Structure formats: structure tokens, C-alpha cells
Amino acid sequence: xxxxxxxxxxxxxxxxxxxxxxxxxxxxxxxxxxxxxxxxxxxxxxxxxxxxxxxxxxxxxxxxxxxxxxxxxxxxxxxxxxxxxxxxxxxxxxxxxxxxxxxxxxxxxxxxxxxxxxxxxxxxxxxxxxxxxxxxxxxxxxxxxxxxxxxxxxxxxxxxxxxxxxxxxxxxxxxxxxxxxxxxxxxxxxxxxxxxxxxxxxxxxxxxxxxxxxxxxxxxxxxxxxxxxxxxxxxxxxxxxxxxxxxxxxxxxxxxxxxxxxxxxxxxxxxxxxxxxxxxxxxxxxxxxxxxxxxxxxxxxxxxxxxxxxxxxxxxxxxxxxxxxxxxxxxxxxxxxxxxxxxxxxxxxxxxxxxxxxxxxxxxxxxxxxxxxxxxxxxxxxxxxxxxxxxxxxxxxxxxxxxxxxxxxxxxxxxxxxxxxxxxxxxxxxxxxxxxxxxxxxxx
Length: 444
Prior knowledge:
Elements: H1 17-21, E1 25-28, E2 34-39, E3 45-52, H2 66-73, H3 84-92, E4 97-102, E5 107-114, H4 118-131, H5 136-154, H6 157-170, H7 184-189, H8 192-202, E6 208-214, H9 218-229, E7 251-256, E8 262-269, H10 278-289, H11 295-303, E9 307-316, E10 321-329, H12 334-350, H13 355-372, H14 376-390, H15 396-404, H16 408-418, E11 425-430, H17 436-439
Parallel strand pairs: 2-6, 7-11
Antiparallel strand pairs: 1-2, 3-5, 3-6, 4-5, 8-10, 8-11, 9-10
């Protein structure tokens, strides 16, 4: 999970000033694959990203971890580039910044290059997406690498407490409650046949978006994409298991671990994409926990010195969402920190925010939107994520207008709707054993 307010994506809040004058151009191939162009005149870079609308949410329990493992395998060689070394050397040879990522509902492959090398980047990313061989020998080797990746994150409780929270709020039996990396026993058991079946089921044209952003020859690039992706076989987008929160009492989950700090997330179920109160929730989240002048930062860090950092953010899906606050604290100060956060929840429910604080929060959102999407890679990521999640590229103007409509009454109403005792969830990683000692805290 990433801090911020998601306007079509994972992972990130903001939009760019390019957005205000950006003319996104959408092309749809005969097989249904969508292509988005985001030309940026005078820009010296170009980014290609291919995203498919699948991830760990589309796995059953036995498949959990397969989407992420498959993402790794795409870099292990094609007929044209027969090894991982061949793939990486070609991209390194033009100074590309390249990578891939798997989330719960999307998987992406991208490369950012000097605009003069876009042809190379597009050819490599297209090739690995469409023609990866998934060699059996590399599958065997990559098992070890992924298990080491799991172990690496297990040593970073700040990065894994969200797994504890997701299992708590969504339930371990639901795909949203499982980890993206999956359990080690799954990683050790996957077969090439399972990779191929997952690929066929989930990587379909109707489920895929290609975006090029930056400086490029649109006619030439579209011709290349048509030639490469036009042969991708038809298939329906995969289905997912929907989620509806039925929580009726506070919940606590503790992952007992010897750590130097206790890491926790306190949160509640929230709204899905395109909810009528999405903007009010965004401003509420900002007031509580975005920036060094937010209420929680001032109360938890500046006034009491309980945490080095604390932030609030919103995670959204098509059918559900969550509002969360995260911090790391001294073991003995966990109760005090949680109580301080809940006190701020009570305050924002009881008393309307002032006009000055409301204005500051709105300007903060607008400012961070402007700053964060100034580059071709961020613009491309926004475009494909928005297309996957919303079916269109969401313009900046729409978001800014929505933020402007939020009133103090809206914020109070949403706070009273979401920040209620029966919906509280507290996920903890640290040397704690007794859940009961925290149960009495969860009142708001």
C-alpha cells in the first residue's frame, strides 16, 4: 500500500500540470486492446508501459503468488532475446530505467528512455509481454529469488504490516486478504503448466492497455503496436470475487515478532472507486494524516514524540476500500499512540473543520497533484492505471473540481459514517501477545 489518495490507481496520489493541457489519444485495436498516447512536446524522454488488469486478487488460494512470480518470469527470455542477460543488456545499453510490478488488481511492465531510444524500449517491452518462453530451468531458479524476496520483506515490518491489516479487514479466505507475494509453499510448487494457464486466462486484449508518453512519432509507434499486439488472441477479462464488509465489531490482529519498534495500521472499511463521497474522504484523509502540518503528525509526533512518522491514506477497489493510519512506535507507547489517533477521529466527527484548514487541505491535494506527475513515466502510469480501473483516463480538471466541491459538512458527515467503533481494525507487528489489552482502546 502507498500513502496518498488514489485517483485511478496503487499506488499513487498525484497528477501533473501536464494533465491540464494533455490531450490523451485513445486507439482501440480490433482485438479490443486499448492504446493511449500522451504526447509531450519538447520532452526529452519517452516511456512505454504495458499493463494488464490482473493481480493477486484474481488468484485462488492455491495460485496465490502466481501473478507476481509470472511477472518475474517475463524477464527470463524470449525467442528474440533468449536470456535474462539479453533482455537487460539491451535496455541497459540505452540507459533505460525499467522494471515491472504486481499489485492486487494490475500488473505492469515499463521502460523509460531518452526519446531517441523509444524504438528499442517499445520493442523489448512488447517482446517480453507477448513472447516470454517461461523456461522450466529459470522457473526453478527463480523460486529461490522470490523466497528471498519474501524473507527480505519479512525483515521489514513497516513494509509488511499492511499484509496483516488486509488479512484482518478482508479476511484470509478472500483474495484481497492474501499477500501479493504468496506463501512459500506455493512458490515451491508452481509448475510451468500453471503459469501458462494463468497467462492465457488473465492476459487478454480486453484486459490490457499500452501507453506511450513523452516525445515520439505517433503514426510510427501506433503501427508498431498494431503489428505486435494485434495478434494477441481474444479472451474475456478475468472475473474476481466481490467483497462487501459485514464487520460489526472492532477487530485486532497481532503478528508476534521480535522488533525494535511496534508497527501498526489502524483503519476502517471505506468507499470504492467513483463513490459520491470519494472527494470528501480524500480531504478528510489529508486533514488527518497528509503532510507535516496534518492533525495526526502534529499530535503524535510534534506534541508527544510518539512516532518518527505517521500518515493516513485511502486504498480503493471497484467494490470496496479502506481508510488507514500507519505508524511505528516504541513498544510501550502503542496504547498511547492508538488512543491519540482515536481522539483525533472523535474530534473531527464532533466539530466541523475550519474554513482555513479546509482550504489548506484542498491546496495541499492540488499542489501534490501538480508536482508528482511531471514526467513521462508518471503520466504513462496514471493513464494506464486509470484506464484499467475506470475505463477512461481521468482528467485533472475533473479531480480538482471534485475537491473544490467538498464542504466542512461533507467531511464531518463522512467522518461520522466511517470512523465508528464497530468498523475499527488494528493490525500490529511487534513483541505483543495479549489482544485483550488493546480491545478496550478501540472506541471512537
